[in-house]
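Title: Prediction job returns without error message
Component: structure pipeline
Severity: low
Priority: P3
Assignee: unassigned

Description:
Job completed but the reporter wants confirmation the result is attached to the right record. Sequence as submitted:
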Amino acid sequence: MHTQKVTFSNQQGIALSARLELPVNQLPHTYAIFAHCFTCNKNLQAVRNISRALNLKGIAVLRFDFTGLGESEGEFAETNFSTNVQDLVAAADYLEQHYQAPSLLVGHSLGGAAVIAASGRIKSVTAVATIAAPFNPAHVKHLFTGDLEHIVSQGEAEVNIGGRPFKVKKQFLEDVNEHNLNKVLNNMEDKAILILHSPQDKIVGIENATDIYKAARHPKSFVSLDGADHLLSDKADSVYAGELIGCWIKRYIEIPEKEPLKAEKSVAVRLGAEGFTTEIMVRKHGLVADEPESVGGNDFGPSPYELVAAGLGACTAMTVQMYARRKKWLVKEVIVNLDHYKDYAEDMQQVEDPKSKIDYFERVVEFVGDLSAEQRQRLLEIANKCPVHRTMEGEIEVKTRLKRENDFPMENSYS
């Protein structure tokens, strides 16, 4: 993902570390904020996967570390649920001042409860998505049950959470006990909410999702993350969650009808340092390319050659239908099946020479409709004349250069 490292200050003047992740063409129509889980940080793999999925929908994501966690300054022991909410408001203020006010809040676990609480204080927000969120922020106390008595009697205690030591003070317990999400949810009149939760969640039980759903006003939606654990440790679960949020949010944000501001090129592609999962933006349309698991990929999308074959197939079907409609021939469907492979050219004599291998795209075309044999034969001829076919068989030259400093100017939103 294209990531900009940014910092902003909360109400106490503490510097919070964040990453602003932009769509590959850097032309977001919407901005979102991601709130991570309790004692986690912005770099959790699940957070990154969800951000990538939202990027592919044209949404920029600001993921940040709460005070005292990750790369943010401050002391964790001095924080509580209220300061988390304040940090979210500060993040929204930063986006509004420097980019665009956020329309979407996404929160994981206690971060999910925090985005619900913060939503009423951020006027620009029209939608909230929670993942494995507790209905009552005080639910987090179960993580240090054995230390509760010591925290109350001594005012603080060092607790172990996920193998890491954290100092928790009495004020934290008092603060989470004061928050009631039921009232906040009842007052969310102008904001949609999506609740994602796994029935197998052993940290925050599924009954929390039930309680959130009952308390929330419409429009509200619930989707089960069946089989997922609390942290969405399986990559496929976080990718699925991100795709769900990206599709759901379309009903609750205004995406301009007109085309986005033009980048220099109509297609933009981005691949990070790990794996082969590749983000593609074609104007305002997001795609994913990948490689099969057999060659080290995650198989989250078609391979590059499969995308080429898809382009050929789509062009074939469109060209045939345009011709048939012009002729007023009723073609109910054009079905194109394709495959790509490399083989030796028939007219090559030196088959041992690696250069004698060429690329083949095998294409099988089916026309559904009341057509004569002559019409079908003519449509087959037209299929072989589709523009992509002619491009692939013609003279092709790919010009490549390094990006210059002033290429692809950054724009913050649609015009």
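Comment from assignee: result matches the submitted record. Confidence is low (pLDDT under 50) at residues 258-262, 409-415.
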